[in-house]
Design a protein that fits this description.
Blueprint (H helix, E strand, L loop, with lengths): L15 E3 L3 E4 L2 E4 L13 E10 H8 L7 E9 L4 E10 L4 E10 L7 E10 L17 E10 L9 E4 L12 E5 L7 H4 E6 L3 H8 L6 H23 L15 H12 L5 H10 L1 H11 L7
Parallel strand pairs: 10-12
Antiparallel strand pairs: 1-4, 2-3, 2-4, 4-7, 5-6, 5-8, 8-9, 11-12
């Protein structure tokens, strides 16, 4: 077990008491789960949490004066989009025990992958009169914790938009189109875009209802994800730089494609699958269909 050693004093862990994050839904509040398998990029997340801080103990144990201003803040990070930002913060200048209620709304378009929620108690402003062993810089962390929520399972997830295909170069009758651009080193969120034809109401409605899909919506979404997986794998196999021993940056298109390949073809080499695709495209298509478990009810 490793423990981070800071160059200044910090209070004991019990000066901050937290309640679990709660997910706010149409049916009320529930404990935040480990994963949301039906999450979609059009689904915003509404989260709440209660945090209590013993300010006097936090300051005294850190060697800070009684009037030192502190800040309790929540910061979010999404691994799928490589985006992060401040969710909410509260400036604490009182004494005694305070209770902070965090009410956070995150845009689904900014999220993806693993959502990390970091809560931290920090020094609000620089202290020129601090003792040598006390925190003095603004932002010095006195206490922190991290909770996570997985927003995607085995199915590929990417940004999407609903448009009228009649105003594009895509066939009017097509239901969707997965657009892939950039090289394998490019950021995934800037390389993938799922376009849904608004004229195809069955598909457009399926994504509109992705948070609480009906049986017909599940069938449509399964077909879209299966087709997207096929396009992504075929795109990967068509690039000679795509290999299991390649070192792609985190959050890159190459890393995403390699992760998808490992999920669909565990224990198999890229070379073998690439050879199968080229020698027997029909068999490869059936293998891929089985791997994505199309139309399987989870």
């Amino acid at each position: 077990m490793t423990r981070r050693v800071l160059p200044y004093r910090i209070p004991s862990e019990d000066v901050v008491a937290t309640e679990p994050w709660r997910l706010v839904t149409e049916d009320g509040e529930v404990a935040m789960p480990e994963a949301l398998p039906d999450w979609d990029y059009k689904m915003d997340l509404h989260l709440r949490r209660t945090v209590r801080v013993e300010l006097d103990r936090a300051r005294s144990q850190s060697g800070l004066p009684t009037d030192a201003a502190l800040t309790l803040a929540v910061v979010w990070t999404a691994t799928g989009s490589s985006l992060s930002g401040p969710a909410e913060h509260a400036r604490l200048t009182d004494s005694g025990v305070i209770t902070a209620e965090f009410d956070v709304l995150l845009r689904g378009a900014d999220l993806g992958g693993l959502l990390l929620l970091d809560t931290a108690l920090v020094l609000a402003e620089r202290r020129t009169d601090a003792r040598p062993s006390s925190p003095r810089r603004a932002g010095s962390v006195l206490w922190s914790d991290r909770e996570s929520l997985r927003l995607q399972g085995d199915a590929p997830q990417f940004p999407m938009t609903v448009i009228d295909f009649a105003r594009t170069s895509f066939p009017d009758g097509a239901a969707w189109h997965l657009q892939i651009s950039g090289g394998l080193e490019s950021a995934t969120m800037g390389s993938l875009l799922l376009l849904v034809n608004e004229r195809n109401t069955v598909t457009a409605n399926a994504f509109e209802n992705a948070g609480r899909p009906r049986p017909v919506d599940r069938i449509v979404l399964s077909a879209v994800y299966a087709d997207a997986a096929r396009i992504m794998i075929e795109h990967a196999l068509g690039n000679d730089d795509f290999a299991e021993d390649a070192d792609f940056p985190d959050g890159s298109l190459g890393a995403t494609l390699l992760s998808l390949f490992d999920q669909l073809f565990p224990g198999q080499s890229v070379t073998d699958i690439r050879l199968r695709q080229r020698q027997s495209p029909a068999l490869f298509a059936s293998d891929l269909q089985a791997a994505v478990k199309i139309f399987e009810v989870s």
